[in-house]
Design a protein that fits this description.
two-stranded antiparallel ribbon; transcription; alpha/beta; WH_DNA-bd_sf; activator; single chain; about 25% strand; D-Maltodextrin-Binding Protein, domain 2; DNA-binding; 3 domains
Length: about 300
């Protein structure tokens, strides 16, 4: 008689698949490699399929393992949501939520909103992690996050998006640049300009790429910033001009003598952010309440920097 797979076995299966290594998965899970191997062998015997192929390139999923991986993720996500539902019933909002944010937003937004959230929900805790939006979206769907604040639009049937605010992008040039000192710059003046941006993994990179294409500017692919701070320093050093998020400018650039900030005349550049969660999440009704509170706090604390999208 076959035994049903255990939750632990499915967790081990997913961990090895994600890390392509028994050793790394064992270290991450805090178990010995022999114990991990034993559990996977038992899972393979129960399912009557071979899940992994070991080679010099690492531990690879077999075709059968690849077909079962998403099913395993779905089972684990359902169990996680069952646990969360039970916690919410037992404790109300006295629980910890995993919140994902992009590194181009989190450090400049969250210090302004977390105190207000804590004042309303004293027992609620937020475990915050930063990651690029594409990775955030995938890991949110897989259950690694409960919530995420992400750039919009987001096209995913399994996710719910509640708009929060629209943030302007500011045009930044070195202090000795011919366009320095102008509060409004004509879009035509950017034709041929060398524009710096972040690495391609960032959503921000693709937005700036589209701007350059529309304006006839040149995207500097040889010099890409790893963070907004490095991007700013490259502008200071005269490697090019750049667009920087309004919240970053508001938070980090007080009296910026080495560079000058302006906007494009008759062509405002913006990016939109929303609070995102899985459509099936047990806390989805609370998350809408949370989004409304976030909008209130952002309007109060940052209403002169961003445009809140009231619903």
């Amino acid at each position: 008689m076959q035994n049903s797979p255990t939750i632990k076995q499915l967790q081990y299966f997913v961990a090895i698949a994600d890390r392509t290594s028994y050793r790394r998965a064992a270290e991450e899970l805090g178990v010995s490699q022999p114990a991990l191997t034993t559990q996977i062998s038992a899972l393979e015997a129960n399912l009557e399929v071979t899940l992994f192929e070991r080679s010099r390139a690492g531990t690879l999923l077999t075709p059968e393992g690849g077909e079962l991986l998403q099913k395993a993720r779905t089972v684990l996500l359902s169990m996680q949501e069952l646990r969360q539902t039970a916690d919410m019933i037992a404790q109300g909002h006295q629980t910890t939520y995993k919140l994902g944010v992009p590194p181009t937003l989190g450090p400049y937004l969250l210090p302004n909103v977390l105190p207000g959230l804590h004042a309303r929900y004293h027992a609620m805790k937020l475990y915050v992690r930063e990651a690029p939006p594409r990775l955030l979206q995938r890991q949110l769907s897989e259950g690694l996050y409960d919530l995420a604040i992400m750039p919009m639009p987001i096209e995913a049937n399994d996710l719910t998006v509640e708009p929060l605010f629209v943030e302007p992008l500011k045009f930044v040039v070195p202090a000795d640049h011919p366009l320095a000192g102008k509060k409004k710059v004509h879009p035509v003046d950017l034709r041929g300009e060398k524009v710096l941006t972040l690495e391609e993994q960032h959503h921000f990179h693709h937005q700036v790429h589209d701007i350059c294409r529309k304006l006839g500017a040149t995207l500097q692919r040889d010099y890409e910033g790893t963070s907004l701070d490095t991007l700013r320093q490259m502008v200071v050093m005269g490697l090019g001009v750049a667009f920087l998020p309004g919240l970053y400018v508001h938070s980090e650039m007080h009296n910026p003598e080495a560079l000058k900030v302006s906007e494009l005349k008759s062509m405002p550049i913006r990016r939109q952010h929303g609070l995102v969660w899985r459509a099936s999440a047990p806390g989805r009704f609370f998350y809408r309440e949370l989004a409304a509170l976030l909008r209130e706090i952002i309007q109060e604390r940052l209403g002169d920097v961003v445009t809140v999208q009231m619903t």
